[in-house]
Amino acid sequence: MIGIRRESGLMKKDGGGGVQSLRRSRIAAAIFVGILLGCVFAFFYPDGFFVSSPPIHHSVANSDSEVITSSCESSERINMLKSEFVAASEKNAELKRQIRELTEKLQLAEQGKDNAQKEVLVLGEQKKAGPFGTVKGLRTNPTVVPDESVNPRLAKILEKVAINRELIVTLANSNVKEMLEMWFTNIKRVGLPNYLVYALDEEIASLCESRNVPVYQRDPDEVKRETDKNFESVARTEGNHAVSGLKFRILREFLQLGYSVLLSDVDIIYLQNPFEHLYRDSDVESMTDGHNNMTAYGYNDVFDEPSMGWARYAHTMRIWVYNSGFFYIRPTIPSIELLDRVAGRLARENAWDQAVFNEELFFPSHPCYEGLHASRRTMDYYLFMNSKVLFKTVRKDAKLSQLKPVIVHVNYHPDKLPRMEAVVDYYVNGKKDALDPFPDGSQ
Ligand SMILES: *[C@@H]1O[C@H](CO)[C@@H](O)[C@H](O)[C@H]1NC(C)=O
């Protein structure tokens, strides 16, 4: 700019000059200066005077004077830098991928460590084993943190109904209406406030409301999951057995909300407060289908195979199944895992829910199978009595018939209603002959 202005200034000045030769030499000088300046500018600004250089060129030119010696060299340099940049960003992507992989591995390792740490937290500090006879393993697992978001409406009801975060729960549809009436009438007589009917249809819901019985009915709008469509149709149309498969899914919500549930079928007569007879030390505390100490609490059943000679006796472990119609379940991770496993299998297999419940509770881990690690306790079969114990043994025994059970479950007999009435007559109304008309088993 400066050069051009000066040039034009010289031209103007020259335009008003006097002597010719002087003017000529001045013109020659001006041309020479002009050419010189042109060379100088061409040298320093090879890309042109008004062309703005790319930023990368600028920064390089500032640091490295050699680069500006030729435009060819600088563009070569740029290309080199560009390829270096591409290579670097490729390397960068590779590094990022490696970092991501490492982070994932680290997270997995952390989770493993986390599990181990949680175990340590649960078990307490690592300790040396104490002296002989003083060590005791863990059976009472910690409860889960309550999650009200699972079912806020149910959470509200449970807040009112439960006592010490525990309650009796039953599922009922109109097929079991009469039994349900006997069920809650006897609970009321015992004076228990902490029980809830999970109504599977409108009729049961309105029956409970009219009788002032705590009730929860699932709002059809709440049914969002695909599997629940299934659930609704089964709940409305099926009888006792199909309903029993649903309870494992329903129970999960209670446990997630942080409540211990004493799950109860409707064919049960309450005679005392069951909560005064629980140990609460295990994930599952259940009544048994057993009828004596051996069958209820487990025994060594020797299997005889004479052809084996010296080793003809094979020892087996046996226990009569837990009754999945009456059990107390604490809100722990193993408990919820049990419910999930049973519900999952019942959804996939056409199986009896009580058999599945017991298999999941008792079968140990083995190749291709990871067993459940839940703690369990068998209830006293004289206090939490099944109808076989009552009709085969107790009613005929002078001493045993004097004891009052906590509950009687009419699980072994199909004529449930009349036997339930007889149990009430016998234990509540003092009719000593109320049980006499009934045979030991069904005929
Ligand atoms: C059955 O078990 C109970 C409780 O463990 C015990 O008190 C009772 O003596 C046992 N009865 C027999 C016949 O072994």
TrEMBL record:
<keyword id="KW-0961">Cell wall biogenesis/degradation</keyword>
<keyword id="KW-0808">Transferase</keyword>
<comment type="similarity">
    <text>Belongs to the glycosyltransferase 77 family.</text>
</comment>
<keyword id="KW-0735">Signal-anchor</keyword>
<dbReference type="Pfam" id="PF03407">
    <property type="entry name" value="Nucleotid_trans"/>
</dbReference>
<feature type="transmembrane region" description="Helical">
    <location>
        <begin position="27"/>
        <end position="45"/>
    </location>
</feature>
<keyword id="KW-0472">Membrane</keyword>
<dbReference type="InterPro" id="IPR044290">
    <property type="entry name" value="RRA1/2/3"/>
</dbReference>
<protein>
    <recommendedName>
        <fullName>Glycosyltransferase</fullName>
        <ecNumber>2.4.2.-</ecNumber>
    </recommendedName>
</protein>
<keyword id="KW-0328">Glycosyltransferase</keyword>
<dbReference type="InterPro" id="IPR005069">
    <property type="entry name" value="Nucl-diP-sugar_transferase"/>
</dbReference>
<keyword id="KW-0812">Transmembrane</keyword>
<keyword id="KW-1133">Transmembrane helix</keyword>
<keyword id="KW-0175">Coiled coil</keyword>
<keyword id="KW-0333">Golgi apparatus</keyword>
<feature type="coiled-coil region">
    <location>
        <begin position="78"/>
        <end position="119"/>
    </location>
</feature>
<dbReference type="InterPro" id="IPR029044">
    <property type="entry name" value="Nucleotide-diphossugar_trans"/>
</dbReference>
<feature type="domain" description="Nucleotide-diphospho-sugar transferase">
    <location>
        <begin position="192"/>
        <end position="417"/>
    </location>
</feature>
